[in-house]
Specification:
With 206 residues, the protein is an all-alpha fold. It is built from twelve helices and no strands. 36% of the residues are buried.
Amino acid sequence: KQYHLSDVYTESIVGQYTAMTRLGVTMEDATKAQGAFASTVTDFTMMSRSQRDALTESALVHERLGIAIDDTAKATQNSIKFFGASGDGAIKIQNEIMATAKALGRSPQEMASEFAQAGGSLAKFGTQGVKAFKDLSRISKLTGMDVQKLLNVTNKFDTFEGAAESAGQLNAALGGNFVNAMDLMMATDPAERFGMIRDALDNAGL
């Protein structure tokens, strides 16, 4: 009635509620998961029931750990459409993000939300997008800058015009020829670019 989906989706909701009630999953939670994935993940309704159930059950487990279902659905769409993952691959990526958050001592909720929001900015990296995000998350932890702000800095060097302007401004601020626009433009990895900017600051003694 809520989502105008067929009876098989209702059966999944009932089955998930019954199987996961010991984790505190309510009927409302199971319904919300099916709806979020059906409206956000464009391949969801073309998947087999077992694939759909695996995705939504994983999302429900992550919600018990504080990850918003909407963020998991967005991250799944990113993983499939931008990073070339399968449904199972999208679950694996979510688990990798959780493990990275734990290793960095960061909030899993915050990192999952950042991954969901950064998908469009990371799409250009294709299958390397998840690695780029994890590298940026490490830099974020070290610098205190959020991932989107880091991407805003490094994305300025995507074009020759942008690289030349930004490198010129940076060199002027540093008082010397510390960064090369062409080198920064050719280094497409955002973590590598940030490292080059950091090295320029070090070399300038700032």
